[in-house]
Amino acid sequence: MRQFFLLCMVLLVCVGCAKAPLTGRTQFIMVSPQQEMQLGLSESSKILHNAKLSTDRRLNERVRRIGQRIAKVTGQQNYQWEFHVIDDDTMNAFCLPGGKVFFYTGILKIMQNDDQIATVMGHEIAHALARHGAERMSMQQASNFGAQVLAMALKIPAKYQGLYAQAYGLTSQLGLMLPFSRQHEYEADQIGVYLMYKAGYNVYEAVNFWKRMKQASAGSKRPPEFLSTHPSSDARIRAIEAFINVLESQPKQ
C-alpha cells in the first residue's frame, strides 16, 4: 500500500508540474489549458445571459480601453479578450480563463482614476495568466484523492468514515487550500502591478486603491486571516509596497 501511495503521488506531481509567470513558482495543475478555456467560455456565456450588464457606454468603453492596454502587455496570444461591466453594487471583479473580464459597478465607484482601474484589471488578469483557478481545482482533486488513499492505508472502519472525512476536510482546508488561496492573491497582486508597470500606469496607485478598499470594507465582519481566502488589507499593502520598491530599483527598459 505504501509503495502504491508513493507511486500515485509521484505520477501526480510529474504530470501536474507547471510554472507561474513572473514569480516562477512551481505549480500543480492537472487541468489542460483547453479544458480550462472551455470552462471559461461556458461560464462567461452564463454570466452574459443572466447578469444585468451596465448600459453606461462611457463606463464600458473606459474599462475596455484599460483592459485592452493591460492585455496587450501580457504576451498572451491565445486569449479572446472581452471586458464587461455588471450593474451591481458588489465590490468585486474577476477574469475567467480565456480572458473574459467582468467588473461590477460597485468596485468602479470607489476608484478615483484609470490607474486604480488598471490595478484591479492587472490583478484579475494575473489570476487567469497564472491559471490559479485550474491550480485550485487540481489541488482539490489531489486532496480528495489523498483522502481516499490515506483512508485505505489507515484502514478506517466504516463507522468512523464520516468523522475521518470531516477531520481530513478541515485539515486540508486550513493547511492547504486556504494558504494556497492567499498565496494566489499575493501572486496576482505582484503580477498585476508588473503588468501595470509595463502598460505605463502609475503603480503607486495600486497602494492607494487597496487603502480605499480597506476603508470601504471597514465595519464588515471578516474572519481571521488564517481562516480567509484573502490576505489582510495591511499585509497585502505592505507586500505591494515592497514589490514596487524592487520594481522601481530595476534599470528602466
Provide a short characterization of the protein structure.
64% of the residues lie in helices and 8% in strands. The chain is mainly alpha-helical.
Commentary on this structure:
By secondary structure, this protein is mainly alpha-helical. The protein contains 9 helices and 5 strands; from the N terminus they run αββααβββαααααα. It has one domain. Helix content is 64%, strand content 8%. A 3-stranded mixed sheet has the order 3-5-4.
List the helices and strands and how they pair.
Elements: H1 2-16, E1 17-19, E2 26-28, H2 33-50, H3 57-72, E3 82-86, E4 93-96, E5 100-104, H4 105-108, H5 114-129, H6 132-154, H7 161-199, H8 204-216, H9 233-249
Parallel strand pairs: 3-5
Antiparallel strand pairs: 1-2, 4-5
The overall average pLDDT, rounded, is 83
Number of helices: 9
- SSE succession: HEEHHEEEHHHHHH
Poorly predicted residue ranges? 1-11
- In whole angstroms, the N-to-C terminal distance is 55 Å
Q: Numbering strands along the chain, what is their spatial order in the largest sheet?
A: 3-5-4
**Derived structural class:** mainly alpha
Number of strands: 5
Largest sheet: 3 strands, mixed
Helix content, binned percent: 55-70%
Radius of gyration: 20 Å
The gross shape turns out to be globular
Q: What proportion strand?
A: 5-15%
How many separate domains make up the residues?
A: 1
